[in-house]
Design goal:
Helix 5 runs antiparallel to helix 6 and helix 6 runs parallel beside helix 11. Helices cover 37% and strands 19% of the residues. It folds into two domains: 178 residues, Rossmann fold (3-Layer(aba) Sandwich); 128 residues, Nitrogenase molybdenum iron protein domain (Rossmann fold), CATH 3.40.50.1980. By secondary structure, the chain is an alpha/beta fold. The chain has eleven helices and 15 strands. It has a six-stranded mixed sheet with strand order 7-6-5-4-8-9, with helices on both faces. A four-stranded parallel sheet has the order 12-10-14-15. A three-stranded antiparallel sheet has the order 1-2-3, with helices on one face.
């Protein structure tokens, strides 16, 4: 696997909650599903690793380890409260100016402790070592871990983050807006003839059952050719791809947008022969949209709709 593909795959694996965590549900609070006008503290929630977290007051110093969570926080108007992010948090533009306290190797514990956050919001897939978790918690830093295996998980976690940060009204408005947009796109897709799809995130690794991308395909009435091959993220043999012969081929591992897939055997796919393929570079905005389960989910769904049906 070349270095670019490794980079693509690692980033997507981290941000899309792969392998051992695919069975985890979305984090849930101890309140009702509909956010209240104001949060009631102390607030007790159970995160996706079944850790109970007691939040005494609305956090004013927040660290986010993942691009998806960072985007949600900005969308809720929490710019000033964000005091640290990961080195992959590059949207919106303001995220780039935040101190980088996480990278692919994990948390920078020394810098995190120096920043004195009230809370760390992290994707389960990023993984915080248990000894580091203990150290941070002993320093009175709250940690909440989340997963996103479906579109509904995104909406649920937006509501949860609104609850944690006392941004309930903002979260409710955002969830309602996204719900309407998602329903509109899904209704539009129902009028189309269903098509089979393969999404390559690098070296024929793809989205299978119980993943965020698979759920997006389901909402568009499309058939994910890898959905019956297993759960989570997996690498499929080239022979299997050729045998399943999808109608649409989407690749996020190319060097430049629009590149023809490099493997000459892929030219045997109907999608390639019929020019029904879409390729995006790792740094492309389209890759960011598709790989980050956050507040741009409706945009991502619209992009997939265009890729599949137009």
């Amino acid at each position: 696997m070349n270095k670019n593909i490794k980079k693509i795959l690692l980033a997507l694996l981290l941000s899309l909650h792969l392998f051992v965590f695919v069975a985890c549900g979305a984090a849930t609070g101890n309140q009702t599903n509909t956010p209240q006008d104001a949060s009631s503290y102390p607030l007790t929630i159970t995160d996706d690793l079944q850790n109970q977290v007691v939040i005494d007051k609305a956090p004013q110093r927040i660290v986010s380890s993942s691009p998806s969570i960072t985007e949600i926080l900005f969308a809720l108007g929490l710019d000033e409260q964000i005091i640290g992010v990961s080195n992959s948090c590059d949207y919106p533009e303001a995220a780039k100016s935040k101190p980088q306290l996480f990278d692919f190797a994990g948390p920078n514990v020394e810098n995190i402790l120096a920043a004195k956050p009230d809370i760390i919001l992290s994707d389960v897939a990023y993984g915080i070592p248990q000894d580091t978790m203990t150290l941070l918690k002993n320093s009175d830093i709250k940690i909440v871990l989340m997963t996103y295996n479906s579109v509904e998980d995104i909406l649920s976690n937006i509501a949860l983050l609104g609850q944690i940060t006392d941004k309930n009204q903002e979260a409710t408005l955002l969830v309602d807006k996204l719900t309407r947009e998602i329903e509109d796109i899904s209704a539009k897709a129902k009028k189309q003839t269903p098509k089979s799809v393969f999404i390559n995130v690098g070296d024929l690794y793809t989205t299978a059952d119980n993943t965020y991308m698979d759920d997006m395909l389901n909402k568009l009435g499309a058939k994910n050719i890898a959905a019956d091959l297993g759960q989570g993220w997996l690498q499929i043999p080239l022979e299997t791809l050729l045998e399943k012969n999808p109608d649409v081929y989407i690749d996020m591992s190319v060097q430049n947008n629009g590149d023809i897939p490099a493997d000459p055997l892929l030219s045997n796919l109907s999608a390639i022969q019929n020019k029904h393929y879409h390729t995006y570079a790792f740094s492309a905005n389209e890759t960011s949209l598709l790989s980050r389960p956050g507040p741009r989910v409706a945009e991502a769904l619209a992009l997939l709709y265009n890729n599949i049906y137009e």
